[in-house]
Specification:
Elements (H helix, E strand, L loop, with lengths): L1 E6 L4 E8 L7 E4 L21 E5 L15 H4 L2 H14 L5 E6 L1 H12 L4 E7 L9 H13 L5 H14 L4 H12 L7 H13 L15 E6 L7 H10 L3 E6 L5 H4 L1 H16 L2
Parallel strand pairs: 3-4, 3-5, 5-6, 6-7, 7-8
Antiparallel strand pairs: 1-2, 2-4
């Protein structure tokens, strides 16, 4: 396993690579809010051999750069993340990949597939945060925090995000152990502004192009059976909008790649077997 930074012109993005090169297409794993590439650490060793695995930190998360203060909001939209992921694939000379994403990362994966279907061999959408699935109450809460933030100390804001991690998990103690990894960049000088920009993106309900226009790319939807953020009804609604998709309900909450890595890896493996055979 090795990690490095890639300069995309306006910012540096960190990624690490694992797995083995072979006949299988590369696999790209995207995290959501407020996590980082660390979310997938339990899944990576379980990806079948013959696949190169690429796990980046999205801009403003993990080890990747914090965006310039003047460009924070535009840089942290789903569209902005999707553009950078395509740039990263270009820099790594990856023409096509199977893309898995959790939460906002799944919305980014979907956006890449909608814009560049020829670059995506398969999609694995884990508890995807999209305009279809994102509850209005969660969007309202994120919006309220951004409005109240000027009067709130940074420690309270970080505490709120830590509590949100616990609330989204079926195993809060496990997410507690990971929280320091995830919250580290938001303790930097510009971290508060970046965190608020992430929350504004959530308040916008992760708008993506219409899901009905999704190309016929093999798609696996994965959902935690005890996800307190996104209801299982939303999983079935999304499944109905993507007729070629499968739905796997796994044990756990909103952060299934960390909570249930074996089950998420099994769903991803089935998808890879299906795409490799085409």
């Amino acid at each position: 396993m090795r990690g490095e930074f890639v300069d995309l012109g306006t910012a540096r993005v960190y990624y690490y690579a694992a797995g083995t090169r072979g006949a299988g297409e590369p696999v790209l794993l995207l995290h959501g809010f407020p996590t980082s590439s660390y979310l997938w650490s339990g899944v990576v060793p379980l990806v079948p051999t013959g696949h190169r695995v690429i796990v980046p930190d999205l801009l403003g998360f993990g080890r990747s750069d914090l965006p310039h203060p003047g460009r924070i909001d535009s840089d942290l939209t789903v569209s902005g993340h999707a553009d950078r992921i395509v740039q990263l694939l270009d820099a790594l000379k990856v023409d096509r990949a199977c893309i898995a994403g959790q939460g906002i990362g799944a919305a980014v994966a979907l956006a890449v597939a909608l814009r560049h279907p020829d670059r995506v061999t398969g999609l694995c959408l884990v508890s995807p945060v999209t305009a279809v699935t994102w509850p209005s109450r969660e969007a309202m809460l994120a919006r309220a925090i951004t409005i109240l933030a000027p009067g709130l100390p940074s420690s309270w804001l970080l505490g709120f995000v830590r509590r949100a991690l616990r609330r989204g998990s079926a195993d809060p103690a496990r997410l507690d152990r990971s929280a320091d990894h995830y919250l580290h960049p938001f303790r930097a000088a510009n971290g508060r502004s970046v965190l608020l920009a992430h929350l504004r993106a959530l308040a916008a309900r992760a708008t993506t192009p219409p899901i009905r226009s999704t190309p016929a790319i093999p798609t696996a939807i994965v959902w935690g059976d005890r996800d307190p953020v996104l209801s299982i009804a939303a999983a079935h609604e999304l499944r109905a909008l993507i007729p070629h998709a499968t739905l796997d309900v796994v044990t756990g909450g909103h952060y299934a790649p960390e909570e249930s890595p074996e089950q998420v890896a099994a769903a991803l493996t089935r998808l890879l077997v299906a795409t490799d055979s085409e």
